[in-house]
């Protein structure tokens, strides 16, 4: 019997699931639509039904599954989903509902933290234990892993990199309700807003258009990139100077721009890094894409099993 774990990544439109062995080899993957009817109350049952059906179709037994990890878009504790706005959940007992039905241990993890764990486990070229993961897309998210363990925090809000306050000459209201969070300036939305402000009119609606203008050496696009990177670099350098991680991993849609974005970001972080760290840190692009959450959710289970085995 091959011992297995299941990694699940719950998104606003799709729930992705995968079966892994304990080394992280993906054995199977599938997905179902996210049912948001009645504040997502059908989601647990639909996950349970889908797992049972998939395992039966492949002539596999649930007895071989040692645990299920679930990445959720919102803060979680060990027992409940504190808040998942996109799903309609508040203090939602997801762990208990699935454990009671399948009789398999469940581990909950925030989705950005799950992606960070996935990159730690299967994205790095060498075995590492400490990373700062930053996802730069519509907003700015992240996960911080120290000694192989995700930093979830006292209020299930660890790793909220996008909500580091920044100093700016203007005021932008963040979706969280605060003013001038990093994601107001360092995200894709922030870049678009900066570009249009510099141009005194709406010239772009997404970051791809900004990077296209960069290739044409558009001065507003060049200035937008410089401003955006400076905000991000100051914040990331602050984290790096505090934690001294082995890797900085950049994911999210903006990272797809590649070296035109990542190289100046690394240079700028270097400018703000502590002298002992400057020039000695590794920054790379995330490589697992939309599979990172499934890998990380599975790793949370494997890590828990490994710790129990050592006790």
From TrEMBL:
Pfam families attached to this UniProt entry: ROK
InterPro entries listed in its UniProt record: ATPase_NBD (IPR043129), ROK (IPR000600), ROK_cs (IPR049874)
Annotated transmembrane regions: none
Sequence similarity: Belongs to the ROK (NagC/XylR) family.
Record's protein name: ROK family protein
Organism: Enterococcus hulanensis
């Amino acid at each position: 019997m091959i011992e297995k774990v299941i990694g699940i990544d719950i998104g606003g439109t799709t729930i992705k699931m995968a079966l892994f062995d304990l080394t992280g080899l993906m054995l199977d993957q599938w997905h179902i639509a996210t049912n948001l009817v009645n504040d997502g109350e059908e989601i647990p049952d639909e996950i349970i039904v889908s797992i049972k059906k998939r395992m039966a179709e492949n002539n596999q037994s649930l007895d071989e599954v040692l645990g299920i990890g679930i990445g959720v878009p919102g803060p979680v504790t060990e027992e409940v989903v504190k808040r998942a706005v996109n799903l309609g959940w508040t203090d939602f007992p997801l762990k208990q509902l699935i454990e009671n039905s399948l009789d398999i241990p469940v581990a909950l993890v925030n989705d950005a933290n799950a992606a960070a764990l996935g990159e730690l486990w299967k994205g790095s070229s060498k075995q590492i234990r400490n990373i700062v993961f930053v996802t730069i897309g519509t907003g700015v998210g992240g996960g911080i892993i120290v000694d192989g363990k995700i930093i979830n925090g006292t209020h299930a809000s660890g790793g909220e990199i996008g909500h580091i306050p920044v100093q700016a000459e203007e005021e932008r209201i963040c979706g969280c309700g605060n003013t001038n969070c990093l994601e107001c300036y360092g995200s894709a939305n922030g870049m678009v807003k900066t570009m249009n402000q510099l141009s005194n009119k709406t010239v772009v609606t997404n970051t791809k258009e900004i990077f296209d203008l960069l290739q044409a050496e558009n001065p507003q696009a060049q200035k937008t990139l410089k401003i955006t990177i400076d905000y991000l670099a100051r914040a990331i350098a602050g984290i790096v100077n505090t934690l001294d991680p082995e890797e900085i991993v950049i994911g999210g849609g903006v990272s797809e721009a590649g070296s035109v974005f990542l190289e100046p970001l690394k240079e700028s972080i270097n400018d703000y890094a502590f002298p002992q760290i400057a020039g000695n840190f590794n920054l790379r692009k995330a490589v697992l894409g939309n599979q990172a959450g499934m890998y990380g959710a599975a790793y949370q289970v494997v890590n828990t099993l490994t710790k129990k085995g050592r006790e």
